[in-house]
Amino acid sequence: MAITRRGLMLVLSSPSGAGKTTISRRLLDEERTLFMSVSATTRARRPGEVDGRDYFFVDPTEFNLMVNRGELLEHAKVFGNYYGTPRGPVEEALAAGRDVLFDIDWQGTQQLQDSAPRDLVSVFILPPSTRELERRLRARAQDSDEVVAARMAKAADEISHYPEYQYIILNDDIERSVAAVRSILAAERLKRERQVGLPDFVKGLREGSGDD
Amino acid sequence: MAITRRGLMLVLSSPSGAGKTTISRRLLDEERTLFMSVSATTRARRPGEVDGRDYFFVDPTEFNLMVNRGELLEHAKVFGNYYGTPRGPVEEALAAGRDVLFDIDWQGTQQLQDSAPRDLVSVFILPPSTRELERRLRARAQDSDEVVAARMAKAADEISHYPEYQYIILNDDIERSVAAVRSILAAERLKRERQVGLPDFVKGLREGSGDD
User: Fold this and answer.
1) Which residues neighbour B184 within 8 Å (Cβ) at sequence distance 6 or greater?
2) Which residues belong to any copy of the Guanylate kinase-like domain (chains A, B) (predicted)?
3) Contact B160/A206, CB-based, under 8 Å?
4) What is the structure's pLDDT at B169?
């Protein structure tokens, strides 16, 4: 016995080095109704990438048309290429009770907040300390101090946007952080407005038809 | 490492027979920062009851003064006696990061919603079916069909108030329902506004002081 529910849009944002990628992978493994959003992009397809799985590859004219038709929930230009989230597949997933995971920054999150405020669940992941963040950024590659300093400055800028998010997780333990996001998913699925089958269920309950 | 947080007020409501009492007991056992709210009442103390633990026992004049001074978060008259929730102990608990559990009906919940909307987390528990609800109400005692019918009517009236709650749990399995409320608690504790220590923590993070 389950009450029909509408899916939700889960946004995870964080400065790089805060552990977001690991948490996302774990969530996609463990949550069977959660799927990664597939973006449209104007950048060239790389070897091994599959159209419709990794990205929807479109040319700049087509991308521009999608923007003008209001078909993108959010979009941005990154290093000269355009990226955006097509509305159709997300809307389909939500209507079928599936949840969609977004790996986007604070600017994308603000756009989702404007275009789909009721479906959005936004989570910001903080590193436990500056020292730990620096350690993780350094561990990624043998980068110069200058590169690391630039990344730290970018991280500080991203962190300044935490007040725009609904939930904040301090990632000092990956297991605890995964459990925390899973609690947020479990709770948000129990929100009255997402349980779209409730009126019918309660009607049955009050009329004594019940279901057992 | 933990960020200071403000406690929350957890309201569980349901028609009698939906399993609320069992769920409440389990939560109080398993959640070490959760405490039952102690009500003030004008009804006489019964053998074994301890003032300040089971209730704050007050006379009608004192109760009336508490109402007039705005010292009660909610109050109601039940079978000729007055009951109410003193604001002071709840406010103290919340400020210390402790959570307070309330076992009140939809009318009390509406009053809490008015007096403390930001601290309130409201959960309505539904029985899985009319047949199951009737079975549970009958199991309680050897009551006449009339008494059971009156209880069923009261349950139906209470259920009609589910749209006033934030979260809805269908209690068809006690373990799952306890886990569901615990997820709600875990998630609500991660809400940005409840993590009152965040601005200081992030300030430290951005200034590079971190804590490790």
Assistant:
1) A186, A187, A190, B10, B121, B123, B167
2) 7-186
3) yes
4) 97
